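Can't paste images in this forum, so I'm doing it all in text. The chain is below; anyone willing to post the predicted structure tokens underneath?
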Amino acid sequence: MDRRSLLQLGTTGLISGLTLPRLLHLQARAATPTPAKAKACIFLFLEGGPSHIDMFDMKPDAAKEIAGPYKPKPTSVVGTQICEHLPQIAKLAHKYTILRSHSHNDNGHNTGYHYVMTGYKADFPDGNSKMPNNHLFPSIGSILSRELGAKTTVPPYINMPHMMQGGGPGFYGSEYAPFVIDADPSQPDFEVRDLKAPEGIDTARAERRRKLLAEADGTAAKGKPESMTTYYRKAQELVTSPAARKAFDISAESVATRERYGHTSLGQCALLARRLVESGCRFVGVDHSGWDHHFTIFPSLEKDMFPHVDKAYSALIEDLDKRGMLDDTLVVLMGEMGRTPKVNGDAGRDHWSMAQSVLFAGGGIKAGQVLGATDKTAAFPTTDPVGVPDLLRTIFHQMGVDTTKVYNTPQGRPVPIVDGGKLIKDLV
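Text version of the structure:
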């Protein structure tokens, strides 16, 4: 109940025993934001559409062309089963919750990505490859960056190993854009650009440049020059911060730790995400592509995709837990859609957004559960469907963000942080 409603109700005398001190106490409680359960969020995005029916919502009793060749495997939670080719994730089922009833109606890659990252439907047709594609609506990370701000010199919002399609700041502007690590940390020559001063630029010369830039900031024009000023300032902060450079130095990790995560793009991105969160980053978005299997899905999943995600996700959860970070780090694993229940004529599965499984761990969520259910072919939820706005509202709630806030675009259009949706109460 908001304060206005509370005051109106109090003046009617309908609440028995509501004295003025009690009224003021309730008013103060209504004005106090919910304490954050999570200090940071790691968002592992399996771009292309991971097959929920072959991973976390298997239907072994369905016809062969629906069930597929994989068998379900018991997990650490009695009665919960997932794919046999995800053994490490299965061992940690008591540390996460599977939401099986996520559902929406955007079957496009680019538009679905936009929807998941912003909570708003795209205003362009699917196939738009512009990066980022959310020119108006801010992404999850940009919202968290604006609402929570930076904790340290490490950027509050980071994307890797490239820009996320719907990960831009929208009308919020460059101040809330992600710092993009446009490189693969699994490669031997991995290096984060902009963390070192240019050759031949000593400390004194760098300081003169900084002062000149500061003077220029005061007279900078709006628009593109202003955006560039923001980027220069952020780059300067990183170059001059030993703590930031240390956070990005994945080579400081032991050989055993890097091996545990797996020497893959997803594995090393997950490890670097842990380092960045540990150093104060609010939101790390990791894009892992390759999940769009319209052809020969099963060999690809078993040989190329499952081993990567099994190692990376399980290592991240275990590592956060051992370091005492899991309780206040929310980890979300999902894609923009699921896959069709029936295998197509090319031995693949096509786009299917009406059912998808999402994994939540840490950050104050109730672990060891399966929430929601789908029908016998994993096509549609048989329980109340959970939509994208519900996911975003729950993530922001756990991060202590007031989801009732509204910001106006430069044209004066009001845009709520979350458009509709409700808290997934059984999850938190």
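Residues 10-16 have pLDDT under 50 and may be disordered. The longest strand covers residues 40-46.
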